[in-house]
Amino acid sequence: MGGWSMFVTCCVWAILLLALFGDSLASAPEFDPYKVLGVSKHASQDEIKKVYKKLVREWHPDKNKSPGAEDMFIKITKSYEILSNEERRSNYDRFGQMDENQNFARAPQGFRHFHDSFYFDESFFHFPRTSGDFTDSKHHLHYNQYISEVLPDSFKRPYLIKITSEWCFTCIHIEPVWKDTVLELEPLGVGIGVVDIGYERQLANHLGAHRTPSILGLINGKVTFFHYAVVREHLRQFVESLLPQKLVEKVTDNSYLEFLNSWHEENKPRVLMFDVASNIPLLYKLTAFAFKDYVQFGYVDMGLTETSKVVQRFNINTYAPTMLLFKENTDKPADVIQARGMKKQIIDEFVSNNRFLLVPRLVNQKFFDELCPVKQFHRRRKYCVLLVTGEGEQFVSVNEAFFDFASSNTKEVVRFAYVYQKQQQPLCDTLLKKEDTTPPQVILLERRSATGRVLYRTVTDGWNGSDDDKHRLHEQLEILQRDPSYLTHDAMLPELNNEFASMFLIQWINAAYDYLAQFYFDLLYSNWREMMPVLSLIFSALFILFGTVIIQAFSDAGEEKPAKQKATDPPKTAESSPGQESTSSRPPKKNFVEVTELTDITYMSNLVRLKPGHINVVLILTDASKQVLLRKFAKEVYSFSGSQTLHYSFLNVDKHSQWMDSLMESAPDARPSDYLDEEEDTTSDKSDYTGHVLALNGHKKYFCIFRPVFTGEEAECGRWSDEDAAKAGPSRASRSRSSSRQKATTLEIHHKLDRLGLWMERLMEGTLPRHYVPAWPSLDTITPQK
């Protein structure tokens, strides 16, 4: 037993030593990605990508039939996967490992060898690493690759993208279905992508994928999630549902002529696809989507009796799929292909070579760039023959003659096109302004830069479509091909208008419909992580709206209470005794006005230390006029008592006669303009301030003054405040003041405050003159009673 225990102990120690120091004993990686690609360790991503493309073309198994081509191709692909991803490249540089399915920055090398020595890998448990499979490795997507390549390409073909991760058991379960789907859809033109959420977290977040496995579709830059059972047929239907509905039009005996003759309105060639299938094959739909901007597709089901005439009309062989391409001539196809096994490459080449009409109309800048490309120094010159014409009936014969000329002059270096002057007015004005000519005109031009610079020349004597015009145009084209300097004019062309662009309102409606449809789809399948921001915004808006309605309802209810009081009930006036603390800083009640007396005790709190932004409205009175003026004052300011920044007080000049004089001396601009004249005439009389009202801002040290108004017999005297005195002038003000003093004893005292309400409105508006004082006068001295 002792020998066996010693043997087991030695084995355990040997295993531990192997695990801890296995780096020195482990063999080197099976190949070096830098050596495979032939780049240095400091090579940039552009250099790596350039070398990779070159090696892939050289060692692709379909082109290189040598025995080791396939293995070398796999090594090249694996090397590029490592070096093109910054994280995997960093792991390799630091740890020398090529297995991208393990994060070696977190796991020491020794434990990995210990792991491998006991076969603790997925194959031991029959859990193959899906992300390491070659069929997935060539479809791995990186964030930069997605943004620069996949996203723009989604406007030409749909993408099916799988989100996976390591040790995802559900991912392993759907792997056979995924492989079969990829083998079926990729040859048809569907883009395939695989995102490992462990290494491409940024891309997964960008796509909105937060769990594995997830399958999503990408088309026209829009991401749509797959929410059904992962079955091959469901995935195929999902890809078909991503495509627009009316890509391919079903054509019968009754509609084929209308379909072919509509080439003029849409400015596109027409392709008729003949096959025996009730549903349009996915291959045709994908081709139609790829060329949707150039060609209009129609499908004829040869198994229907409603299509027998069109099949006989074009003598179609019913035993093999057939494609006919029509341009301006709808009686005879411009090109035909027929094969039992239609391949995508054959169809794409067939459509691409015929994607323009013989004489297309320039409807946008994209068409112009492709029909009349910019001159390249290493390529042969290409010229564009442009007919500037109109849409009326008088231009029909001219346009047909130009088409006939183009049909008989199909040269590679010359492209024919036409524009409608009304549709492309800026372009036509630029080309015709030097010659001062009107359509129809034929212009020979060559584009020299992508910014719009062209060399051009107008064909002499215009274009009427006669034989002489055709002969003259032919001669000038011959001269141009021999001598490029024949183009004598130079111009900068503006960008062409997009004639097929939909109205802004239609674009907005379509965008809103897509957004609402996506919102409903996400809500239906409880994609709450993505829906939370939208739901939060909606509930926040509803909460704010509900709160506003409730506050407004309570506010309206509070304002209705004073209106229900009887008009005969005068507002109550609360007087505070001289020794009572001021409570004017509190919001006044709705059913009375609170007026406090300004004394030496309340003076500091009601004026000197008044809160910023608050104003104390002070009524000047005497013992004799106290009751009458207070009642009138409360009535005039009652409508303003709801403001929390206004406070109301009164000052008895019989007790503090010197305070008003000190205030007026501190602010000379507050005195009326006739003050000096009055001072000379009545030096023995004291100023009468009864009925004056002051608006005192204790914080900013300024006041506004209201002077009494005499109504009744002297209503024409109006209100005498600071602004009225300034407008009237010295003489008139003096006479009015004198008249007022002479008859003051005959008038009712309460009439002095008749227009206080108008003055209060101007006070609230901030339009009254302000008189500033350096400091407020003290109120310590009480005038003795006589």
TrEMBL record:
Pfam family, one: DnaJ
CDD domains named among the record's database cross-references: DnaJ (cd06257), TRX_DnaJ (cd02963)
GO cellular component, one term: endoplasmic reticulum membrane
Keyword Disulfide bond tagged: no
Biased composition (Polar residues): 574-586
InterPro entries in the record: DnaJ_C16_autophagy_reg, DnaJ_domain, DnaJ_domain_CS, DNAJC16_TRX, J_dom_sf, Thioredoxin-like_sf
Keywords: Glycoprotein, Membrane, Signal, Transmembrane, Transmembrane helix
Start and end residues of each stretch annotated as Disordered: 560-589, 667-687, 724-745
J domain sequence ranges: 32-96
Gene3D superfamilies: DnaJ domain, Glutaredoxin
GO process annotations (BP): autophagy
Biased composition, class Basic and acidic residues, residue ranges: 560-569
Residue intervals passing through the bilayer: 500-521, 533-554
Name of the protein: DnaJ homolog subfamily C member 16
